[in-house]
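Reproducibility note. Readers wishing to regenerate the assembly model reported in the main text can use the exact inputs given here. Chain order matters: entities are listed in the order in which they were concatenated for prediction.
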Amino acid sequence: MNDAPVPHRRRPRYSGKNPRRFEQKYKEQAPALYPEEVQKILNSGKTPAGAHRPILVAEILQVLRPSPGDLVVDCTLGYGGHSREILPLLHPGGRLLGLDADPIELPRTEARLREAGFGPETFSAHRCNFAGIAAVLARESPRPADVILADLGVSSMQLDNPARGFSLKHNGPLDMRMNPNKGQSASVFLSQVGAEKFQEILEENADEPHALLLSKALAGKRCAGTRELVQLIQAALPNRPAEERELSVRRVFQALRIAVNEEFGALDTLLKHLPQCLGAGGRVAILSFHSGEDRRVKKAFEAGLQAGVYGEISLEIIKAGEEERRANPRSKSAKLRWARRSDC
Ligand SMILES: C[S@@+](CC[C@H](N)C(=O)[O-])C[C@H]1O[C@@H](n2cnc3c(N)ncnc32)[C@H](O)[C@@H]1O
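Running the prediction on these inputs yields the following C-alpha cells for the assembly.
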C-alpha cells in the first residue's frame, strides 16, 4: 500500500469575477459538484466548458422513433447528449452502439453514461471512424440497425479546449485532429499544402470568398499556434472590415479542420454504407452544419429514394426553432435530414 500523502493541487486562479480560460472553468467542468453554477450558465444561453448541448433532440426522437428492443448506432457519440435521451427508450431489450473518433472524450462519455445507469448490455462505446460503421455492426450484432444517427462536425468540448487546437478565441497548438494520435496536425498540413490545393479546400470546405488571396498568403506557412494563424488571416485581408475578416477566420478554421480530419471522405463512405447497415424500415437522421455536408446528405438520400433503397426521405430540412436558437447559438446552422429504409 502507498501511504505517501497526496500532494495538494491548487485550483487555477483567475483575476476578476469570472474565469475566462478553459482550464480555469473547473466548476463548469464538474457539474456534479457545482450544479447551481452550471444551471446559471445554461440559463444564460451558454454551454458549460467541457460539455455539449445536444441539438434538435425532440425532432430527432420524432423522426427516428427509437423503441424497446431497437438496435441503435450513434455514429457521433460526442458528449452522449442524444444517446442519453435515446437509451431509456430502448428498454427492454434494446442496445445502443456509440461510435466516436475522439480517444480523449470517448472514455469520459462512456464513464458518464455508465454512471447514469447504462450497463454494457445496453450501451457500448467504440473508438472508431464512422466510415467503419459496417465493420462495427458486423462484429457487434447478427442483424442490421433499426436506427442510425450522425451529428456531424466537432463537439463543444473539442472546440472550447485550446489544447485541441480548434479554438479561435484562445491560443493553443494548431492541431485540430479529432483523433490526435492519427494523421497530420493542421500545422503540418498547412506547411505542406500547395496554394492551388489550399484554394480548392477553402472554396469546397467553407465557401470562402477570399480563397485565392488567403491561399497565397497561408499555404506552405509554418504556423505552430492558433493565434498565429488568426493573425496571418487578418493580415492577409488588411482593407476589409473587422466583421468580414472575423468571418474569414472562422471559415479558414472550418476548411482546415475538414481537410485535416478528411470529414467529407468519411461522410461519403458513411452515406454509401448506410443502406446495408439499416434493416427493413430502419430510420437514419443526419445533422449537418454547413452546405458541403448538407449537399452530400441530400444527394445520397435522393439517389437512394430513386433507387428504391429508401422508402421515404425528408422533403424539407428541419431547423432549430427560435427558442432553441436563442438558448443554444450553436444550433443556428444545424440542418436535419432523415430517410427510412424501404420495407423490402
Ligand atoms: C457534434 S459532436 C456530437 C455530439 C453528440 N451528438 C452529443 O449530443 O453529445 C460530433 C462528434 O462526432 C465525432 N466525429 C466527427 N467525425 C467523426 C467520424 N468521421 N467518425 C467518428 N466520430 C466522428 C467528433 O469527435 C465529435 O465527438
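We highlight two features of this model. Residues 179-260 form a domain with the DNA polymerase; domain 1 fold (CATH 1.10.150). Strands lie at 71-74, 95-100, 123-127, 145-151, 278-288, 310-313, 335-341.
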